[in-house]
Design goal:
Layout (H helix, E strand, L loop, with lengths): L8 E4 L16 H11 L8 H22 L5 H23 L11 H14 L4 H13 L17 H9 L1 H13 L8 H52 L15 E5 L4 H8 L6 H6 L8 H14 L3 E6 L16 E2 L2
Length: 334
C-alpha cells in the first residue's frame, strides 16, 4: 500500500520481539549520560498540577458518593462515575509513590505523603504497601517470578479479563508472600503492622456502614468501583504497556503509544493519564506524569538509537524524511 500524506497509520518504529537477554539494569553509559542530560529540565519541581488533580478527584468522589447515598442519582450511575474517578485517582497515588509531588523540595514531603494516603484510601490501596509493590514492579519489570504486575501476562483474552478483575486479590497475596514481615527488608515488621491496621480501618469502615444499612451504597459506590478501576488500571498501565512481557532491557521493556495531532494527542494523553508514554516513566520515574510528552520528544533520538518500542498513530508529517524513523516501512491499519 502507498504511504501518501494524510493516511492514518500505525507505524512500528521498532519490532517487538524478546530478542535481548541483558539483565534489566545492565549499564548503558553512553545512552544514559545523554538521556540524563536531556531529561533534567523535566524533574525536580513541585508538581502542583498533580495536587490540583488529586483535589479534584477527592471532591468528585465525595460528590458522587453523596449524590448516590441520597438517591439523587441511581447507584448504577454512581458506580460508573466512581469507577472513572478512581481510575484517575491512581495517578496522584502513583506520583506520590515516586516522590514526584514534592520533587526536590523537602518542605513539601508532607503534601506528597498526604496525597498518597488520601488517594490510596479512596482506591483502597494502602499507600506504603502499594509503594513497595510498585517499586518491585520497577525493579523487576517483566520478571515472571517477582514482578507483581506480571499476573496479567497471559495470552487468552478471557484470562486477561479474569486476571485484570482479580488484580486486587493478587496484590494482597503478593504482599503477604514477598513483602510482609520479611526480616531482610529493614523496618518491614512494624511497617506490616501499620499496613494491616490501615486495611482493617478501610474495611472496618465499609463493614460498619454496611451493618448500618448502607451495604448497597458501599458496594456500588466504593467496593465495585475499586475493583473495576483497578482492572482498568492494570490493563492500560501494565498489560498493554509491557507487551509482550518478555523483554528485560531497560530501553525496551516498556512501550510508547504516540498518538499524533494537535487535538487528538492531548485528548488521548489525558484519557490514558499520560501512561501511553509509560517508557518515559520507567526510564525516569521522577518526571511528573504531565511532562511525559515533552520528555519523550527530547529523548526521542536516544530512544530511536536504543530501538525502543514506539508505536506511532496518526498522520505522517510533511517533512517525513527528516523523521528519525521515516525510512522504516509503516504498517497500515486501514
Amino acid at each position: 500500500m502507498g504511504t501518501e500524506e494524510g493516511l492514518w497509520i500505525m507505524s512500528f518504529v521498532a519490532a517487538v520481539s524478546p530478542d535481548i537477554e541483558k539483565p534489566r539494569d545492565a549499564p548503558n553509559a553512553p545512552a544514559d549520560r545523554q538521556a540524563l542530560t536531556l531529561v533534567k529540565p523535566y524533574q525536580g519541581m513541585v508538581a502542583w498540577p498533580t495536587v490540583l488533580l488529586a483535589l479534584g478527584i477527592v471532591v468528585s468522589f465525595a460528590l458522587v458518593t453523596a449524590l448516590g447515598a441520597m438517591q439523587l442519582i441511581p447507584l448504577w450511575l454512581g458506580l460508573v462515575l466512581n469507577t472513572l474517578i478512581l481510575y484517575a485517582d491512581q495517578t496522584p497515588l502513583h506520583e506520590a509513590c515516586h516522590g514526584n509531588i514534592a520533587g526536590k523540595d523537602s518542605r513539601f514531603l508532607w503534601l506528597n505523603h498526604l496525597v498518597g494516603y488520601v488517594c490510596g484510601t479512596l482506591l483502597l490501596h494502602e499507600y506504603k504497601a502499594f509503594r513497595f509493590m510498585h517499586l518491585a514492579h520497577h525493579r523487576d519489570t517483566n520478571n515472571p517470578e517477582i514482578d507483581p504486575d506480571h499476573w496479567v501476562s497471559v495470552k487468552n483474552p478471557f484470562l486477561v479479563l479474569f486476571r485484570c478483575l482479580t488484580i486486587v486479590f493478587w496484590y494482597h497475596q503478593y504482599f503477604w508472600k514477598h513483602i510482609a514481615f520479611h526480616a531482610h527488608i529493614p523496618g518491614m515488621r512494624p511497617l506490616t503492622l501499620h499496613i494491616v491496621a490501615m486495611h482493617a480501618l478501610y474495611y472496618g469502615v465499609a463493614l460498619a456502614l454496611s451493618v448500618y444499612g448502607y451495604w448497597r451504597e458501599v458496594l456500588m459506590l466504593w467496593i465495585f468501583p475499586h475493583l473495576l478501576a483497578s482492572a482498568l488500571i492494570i490493563y492500560f498501565f501494565a498489560y498493554l504497556t509491557h507487551q509482550p512481557h518478555e523483554v528485560h532491557e531497560r530501553y525496551r521493556d516498556t512501550n510508547v503509544f504516540w498518538v499524533k495531532g494537535k487535538i487528538l494527542e492531548p485528548i488521548v494523553n489525558w484519557l490514558y493519564m499520560f501512561q501511553n508514554f509509560h517508557l518515559i516513566h520507567h526510564l525516569f520515574p521522577r518526571v511528573p506524569f504531565y511532562l511525559y510528552p515533552k520528555a519523550f520528544r527530547s529523548l526521542k533520538p536516544v530512544l530511536d538509537r536504543e530501538r525502543a518500542h514506539i508505536y506511532e498513530f496518526g498522520h505522517e508529517p510533511t517533512a517525513s524524511s527528516s523523521h528519525p524513523g521515516a525510512n522504516r516501512d509503516p504498517i497500515h491499519t486501514s
